[in-house]
Amino acid sequence: AQSVTQLDSQVPVFEEAPVELRCNYSSSVSVYLFWYVQYPNQGLQLLLKYLSGSTLVESINGFEAEFNKSQTSFHLRKPSVHISDTAEYFCAVRPRGSTLGRLYFGRGTQLTVWP
Amino acid sequence: GAGVSQTPSNKVTEKGKYVELRCDPISGHTALYWYRQSLGQGPEFLIYFQGTGAADDSGLPNDRFFAVRPEGSVSTLKIQRTERGDSAVYLCASSPGRHFQETQYFGPGTRLLVL
C-alpha cells in the first residue's frame, strides 16, 4: 500500500524568501514521485517529477525537489518565491512496475506568498 | 492543442437525484482517470480506463458510482441516489497510455454540491 504525507497544510512566506514544502511517502515498492500545482481557479498541473537518475529534479520556474530514498522524502524547494507562486501544491506517488496508473496524492500544502 | 475538458463546471443537485459528469480527454489519449477531491484533501483515485475498458475500478466507493467510456474517448461518471457526502470536486485526467512514467493531464474539474 502507498501513502503520502504532506506535513504542512499551510505555508505563508514573504516574497523573495526561500520556501520548502515537505513530502514523505510510505510504500512497499519503489515509486515514481510527482509534484503537482493548482493555481486559483485552475486545474492541477505537473510541476516536476522524479523517475530515475539524478535525485535532484528541477522545474522551469525555479522549483526543485530532491528524492531521498533513505528518508522516503521528496521535498519541494525554491530559493526565492514570487507572489505568483501562491497556489496549492500536491505531492503524489505511483508504484513502479505496476500495470495500473493511479496516482496517490497527499492532502496538499497551500503556499501563500505575501508582498 | 485543447486540454482535458469537463462539463458541467458546477452541478447542484438534491439528495437522492442522479447525476452525470462528462470528461473529454486530450485527443489520442487512451488512458483516462477519474479522481475525487473533497474539501481539504488531495485527489483520491476512483477509476482508470485504458481504451474502452475499466482497467482498475477499485477506487469507486460503492455501487452508486459507475463510469463508462464506450468509444474510448469521452467518459461519463454516473452517480445514482446522490448523498450529501458525494459533494466534492470530480477531476478527470488523461495520458497517452504508452507507459506509466507519463504525465497525467488534468481537467479543471466538476464541482458537485448535493443539498
Mean of residue pLDDT values of chain B: 94
**Oligomeric state of the chains present here:** heterodimer
Can you tell me the overall shape of chain A?
Answer: globular
Q: Average the pLDDT over all residues of chain A and give the rounded result.
A: 92
* Beta content of chain A: over 45%
Give the number of helices of chain B: 0
Class by SSE composition of chain A = mainly beta
Word description of this protein:
The complex is a heterodimer of chains A (115) and B (115). Chain A has strands at residues 2-5, 10-14, 19-21, 24-27, 31-38, 45-50, 56-58, 64-68, 73-78, 87-95, 104-105, 109-114. Chain A has no helices and 12 strands. With 115 residues, chain A is mostly beta strands. The relative contact order of chain A is 0.33. Chain B has 115 residues and is an all-beta fold. In chain B, 0% of the residues lie in helices and 48% in strands. Chain B has strands at residues 5-7, 10-13, 19-24, 31-37, 44-50, 53-56, 65-68, 75-79, 88-95, 105-106, 110-114. In chain B, strands 2, 4, 5, 6, 9, 10 and 11 form a 7-stranded mixed sheet that branches. Chain B has a 4-stranded antiparallel sheet with strand order 1-3-8-7, with no helix packed on it. The N and C termini of chain B lie far apart (37 Å). Classes of the chains: A mainly beta (115), B mainly beta (115). Chain A binds chain B through residues 4, 6, 9, 32, 36, 42-46, 49, 51, 90, 92, 94, 96, 98-108, and chain B through 3-4, 31, 33, 35, 40-45, 48, 55-56, 59, 91, 93, 95, 100-101, 103-109.
List keywords for this structure.
heterodimer, A: 115 residues, mainly beta, six-stranded mixed beta sheet, four-stranded antiparallel beta sheet, 12 strands, globular, B: 115 residues, seven-stranded mixed beta sheet
Question: How are the SSEs ordered, and which strands pair?
Answer:
The complex is a heterodimer of chains A (115) and B (115).
Chain A: E1 2-5, E2 10-14, E3 19-21, E4 24-27, E5 31-38, E6 45-50, E7 56-58, E8 64-68, E9 73-78, E10 87-95, E11 104-105, E12 109-114
Parallel strand pairs in A: 2-12
Antiparallel strand pairs in A: 1-4, 3-9, 5-6, 5-10, 7-8, 8-9, 10-11, 10-12
Chain B: E1 5-7, E2 10-13, E3 19-24, E4 31-37, E5 44-50, E6 53-56, E7 65-68, E8 75-79, E9 88-95, E10 105-106, E11 110-114
Parallel strand pairs in B: 2-11
Antiparallel strand pairs in B: 1-3, 3-8, 4-5, 4-9, 5-6, 7-8, 9-10, 9-11
